[in-house]
Structures are given as C-alpha cells and as structure tokens.
Write a structure and sequence with these properties.
Elements: E1 5-8, E2 15-23, H1 27-34, E3 35-37, E4 52-57, E5 63-72, E6 83-90, H2 92-104, E7 108-109, H3 114-121, H4 127-138, H5 142-152, H6 155-179, H7 190-208, H8 211-219, E8 221-227, H9 233-241, E9 259-265, E10 268-274, H10 284-299, E11 302-308, H11 315-327, E12 330-335, E13 353-355, H12 364-374, H13 390-411, H14 416-434, H15 440-447
Parallel strand pairs: 1-7, 8-10, 8-11, 11-12, 12-13
Antiparallel strand pairs: 1-2, 2-6, 3-4, 4-5, 5-6, 9-10
Helix pairs in contact: 1-2, 4-5, 6-7, 6-14, 7-13, 13-14
Length: 454
C-alpha cells in the first residue's frame, strides 16, 4: 500500500455537505495541492483533527469552493495511514472537480471499501469490526444500529479473543511440557484439559446460536403472507409498504410468483413475502406460484395467515392455519374488516389474531403490536456480540465442532498430542472469523459489499 487513494465519501446527489477523503503516504501533499487555508501555513502543518477553513481549487488552480479540511496522521487515523478530509458544499460538480484535482496531485480512485480494507490490513480493525461498518451503514432499525456499533467497538472481538486465548494457552502449556521436560512446568492433567475444552466448546456453541438473531437484525425476519386466492394478501402487502408494489385485482390467481420487500413493522425489520393464493389449480404457471408460496412458508420465521373475514372460513383455511402454526410463529389476520364479519370456529389455543382492513387502515396498528409481541427486543444480549452473517456463523460452527471433537477425543482416551490437531483446527476457524488467517478471496468478497469512499 504505497499509493494514495481518494474518493467522494458522500452520496452522488446534491446535499448540504460533501466529503473528499484521502489516505496514503501522499495524502497530505495531495490535500495541500488542492486546498489553501485562508490563514496560517499549509494544511499539512496543522495538528491532527483540527478543522481549517480555506479555499478548494480545481486542477487548474481556480477556486471552486470555500470549505473546511482536516488531517490525521498515521498510525492513529482510521486507516492507520496519513489521511485528509475536505468537507465542502455537497454539489456533485464541485466534488467531481475536487476529486479530479486530487488525481492530478498523485492520488488514484479508491475502490469499494478500500479505506476500511486498509484499516483492516493495518491492524486498526479486525474482520468482524470491518463487517460491522457495512452493517452500521445498512442498519434499518435502532436495534440493528446498536448491534453494529457495539461490534465496531470490539464487543464481538473481545468475546472471540477470550476463547482464542484460552485455546492458545492450552496449546502453549502442552508444548512447553513436551518440549522442555527438564523445566519446572506443571504437567497437564486430563481433567483440566477437559474442562478447558468443554468451556471453549460451550462458549463457541452459544456464539454460533446468536446467528439467527443477528441475521434477523441485518437481513430481516422472513415473513410469508399466505392465504387462499382473493384473501387480500397483495392488498395488505401494499398497505404495509405504503405504496402499490404488488398487482391487486378481483381475479383469483392474479399473483403468480412471490414478491419480496423489506418493511419495519412493530419495530421489527421484516422481509415481507407476498405469495400466490394457495389452491389446487390446473394452470401450470399458477401451480408454480403455489409451489413457491409453500416454499416461502417452509422458510419463514413469521407467517401471516389471511382469511377473507366477510365469509365463513373454509376447511382449507383451517388446514392452512394448522400448517403455519407447525412451522413458525403465526398471526391469524381477518381481512376486509370493513365488511360484516364472519366468525372463526373456536380453536384452543388460538394464535394471535387481528382484524384488518387494508382499504381503510383499520387494524394495522393491532397487527404491528402482534408482531412486536412475537419478537421482543433482546435486552439481555450485550450489543455487538451477535454473529450477523453466514461467513461468521460458518467459522464459529466449525470452531465449535472442532473443540467438541477434541473434548470427545480426550474423554475417549486419545493422547493429548493427537487431539491437539482438533484444537489447531478450532484456532484456525477462529482466526478466519477475526481475520488472523483469512484468505484473500474471502476478504475481497467482504469488501465488495462496501460503497466507494468507505
């Protein structure tokens, strides 16, 4: 990393403030080339993090803005390198001219996530903290933002570090006893090694189990809206989104495929899935839609079962409700509540049930309350200690399995030197999780998710 990168760190649309960001060995010199303080010496002579007022110039030296700039020298900066930021008015034209001027003074265009990637490579962040940056940018609920901020602050890193250090201590002690038999080193006892492995396996299993909650925060709870044709699924789907996303007609079978959007309901981020009406049909295309609807039900973590409340429920409605209850938390939604109601036959126990009219908005607040009650905030889990993506969950699961194999091998009487192979595998998986031993192709994939300028 001997070159200097530059990028616009704000959006492409006009806004109040626009930021030009630089990092690398030539960052201060490039900033001096385009920014002239109105008082005092050049920007590069100023203390770290001091805002300086001055003139931003284009590559020809013409003034294009009056703005603020600041520098932060490595290794104490975000990237660990010399960095500079120019905070100007958010005109896309001004930002483009300023960026061209920085290129003329030796910087090059930064790639997606390259600033954060340099922070990772320079040891300013581990890989879980780097992933928290994009989670924080993408956060759609307060709970998701708190989780990402905690992970960025190192909560998950510290939790992983405790397990990693415990396994390293176990390995180091064993090798010390083996390699230095004449030294006064307390030998390993099987019960002590078993306790250490059991503790590590338990901690890793508990960590791997957090992925479901972490995924719900970042990706949303998969929520299938199901029911017979013309039950009002697409109408409710549109009402919850606040705009017409799905086609609505009075013709049964209009919806032929699943339609998916994210929406916050009751403080919960849902991956809302509108499905085709469930019925037997000879139409080959509609039948494919019905099959996808059933698959959406199978993968859902919340199911809204809709029934046309203006008509008595059919046998198929009852069967659908029973199937949904066997799969996931379910809310029974009586639609068309603006029409005279028909009662639902008794069931014990009854699932949460609400009556809604997507046409008038009646009952939508009650639906929000029902969803919120099914997914209460987890106040017990410290912010930042959840696994939030499949990469993290896979590495944690492999580490847990390796630690459990080592514990089982010790209980079966396998010699310590043989079971330590499993301990090394657990350490390797943990190293992949934090970035100690991760492959370059994996880091490439992670940072591709980032926007340019971050």
């Amino acid at each position: 990393m001997t070159d200097t990168i530059a990028a616009v760190a704000t959006g492409a649309r006009p806004c109040a403030i626009g930021i030009l960001r630089l990092s690398g060995p030539g960052a201060l010199a490039a900033a001096d080339g385009v920014f002239t303080p109105l008082r005092g010496g050049p920007l590069s002579s100023r203390p770290d993090r001091q805002l300086v007022y001055g003139v931003l110039r284009d590559r020809e030296g013409a003034e294009i803005d009056r703005c603020l700039a600041t520098v932060t020298r490595g290794p104490g900066s975000y990237t660990g390198e010399d960095t500079a930021e120019i905070q100007c008015h958010g005109s896309p034209t001004v930002l483009a001219l300023g960026l061209e001027a920085l290129f003329a003074h030796g910087a090059r265009q930064a790639g997606p996530g390259e600033f954060t990637r340099r922070a990772f490579l320079n040891g300013r962040l581990d890989l879980t903290q780097a992933e928290a940056v994009i989670d924080l940018i993408d956060a759609q609920t307060p709970e998701a933002a708190r989780q990402a901020a905690g992970q960025l602050a190192g909560a998950l890193s510290r939790r992983l570090g405790e397990v990693y250090d415990g396994l390293v201590d176990l390995m180091a002690h064993f090798h010390a006893v083996l390699d230095y038999p004449d030294e006064d080193i307390e030998p390993f006892r099987a019960e002590e090694m078993s306790a250490a492995l059991d503790r590590a396996a338990r901690q890793l299993e508990e960590l791997a189990a957090t992925y479901r909650r972490g995924r719900q925060l970042t990706e949303g709870v998969p929520c299938a809206i199901v029911g017979r044709p013309n039950a009002g699924k697409s109408t409710l789907f549109n009402a919850l989104l606040g705009y017409d996303r799905a086609i609505v007609t009075d013709v049964p079978g209009t919806t032929r495929d699943t339609v998916e959007e994210r929406v916050r309901l009751g403080g919960v981020l849902l991956r809302l899935i509108d499905t085709a009406g469930l019925r037997d049909t000879e139409d080959r295309v509609e039948r494919l839609g019905v099959e996808r609807s059933r698959a959406a039900m199978e993968g859902a973590e919340l199911i809204l079962v809709l029934w046309d409340g203006s008509r008595p429920p059919a046998e198929e409605d009852g069967a659908l409700l029973e199937r949904a209850l066997s799969l996931a938390p379910t809310v029974l939604v009586r639609t068309k509540a603006d029409l005279p109601p028909a009662p639902w036959p008794g069931r014990d126990p009854m699932p949460p049930a609400v009556a809604v009219s997507a046409r008038t908005g009646r009952g939508l607040d009650e639906l929000e309350e029902a969803v919120a009650a099914l997914f209460p905030p987890d106040r017990a889990a410290p912010a930042g200690e959840l696994l939030t993506n499949a990469r993290q969950a896979g590495a944690a699961a492999r580490a847990a399995e390796a630690a459990e194999r080592a514990r089982g091998a010790l209980a079966a009487g396998v010699t310590p030197d043989a079971l330590l192979t499993d301990v090394e595998e657990a350490l390797s998986a943990l190293g992949e999780l934090t970035g100690r031993t991760v492959r370059e192709d994996i880091t490439d994939r992670i940072f591709e998710r980032f926007c340019v300028g971050k």
